[in-house]
Amino acid sequence: MALNGLIWWIAAGVLIVTELFTGTFYLLMIALGLLAGGIAFAVGLELHVQLGVAALVALVAVVLLRRSRFGSWKRRDASRDTAVNLDIGATVEVAQWHDRRARAMYRGAEWDVELAPGESEGARLYCITALEGSRLVVAAKR
After folding, report:
1. Is the pLDDT reported for residue 111 higher than 80?
2. What is the mean pLDDT of the chain?
3. pLDDT, tens digit (0-9, with 9 covering 90-100), for 60-87
4. Distance CA 101, CA 13 (A)
5. Beta strand residue intervals within the chain, DSSP E
6. What are phi and psi of 29, to 5 degrees?
7. Which alpha helices (H) appear in 44-118, and where do they start and end?
8. Are 58 and 65 in contact (CB under 8 A)?
9. What residues does 106 pair with on adjacent strands?
10. What transmembrane ranges does the database entry give (predicted)?
């Protein structure tokens, strides 16, 4: 019968180690449920109660995680994220526009440049607001 109690702890350990590779915290919440099942076994509760305790603790933990700021991460638009694209915020000089598009030298290479919505072609210096593929989206530098 001691093997039954050990299974709770081994399963929780496997989920905790697996969680280290995913980084989502959901497996950790399920592992908390398994730990609660192991504690229920150690207290001497019957198997169906152990399973119920494990399921209830895991469910509550997952729901609480989902409602927290760690469980509701939103995907960011990488084309406008300064943590992903270090070029965002850099300055580009554009000499001539053709229908809101241009070619400009930036970092030693010629890039396609496009005006951001609502921007005009009147300025000479522009700030990069996004990268869409190999195209720089720019706004007039203020």
Report:
1. yes
2. 88
3. 999 998 888 776 666 666 667 777 788 8
4. 56
5. 91-93, 101-106, 109-115, 125-132, 135-140
6. -65, -40
7. 47-67
8. no
9. 109
10. 7-35, 47-65
According to CATH, the topology of domain 78-140 is: OB fold (Dihydrolipoamide Acetyltransferase, E2P) (2.40.50)
Structure tokens at 57: 């603790």
Q: Which amino acid is at 96?
A: Q
Please state the length of the chain: 142
Q: How would DSSP label each residue in 22-37? A: H--SHHHHHHHHHHHH
What's the mean pLDDT in 50-59?
A: 96
Other CB atoms within 10 A of residue 61 CB = 19
Q: Which residue type, as a one-letter code, is found at position 70?
A: F
Q: Per-domain residue ranges for the chain? A: 2-67, 78-140
Q: What is the DSSP letter of 98?
A: B
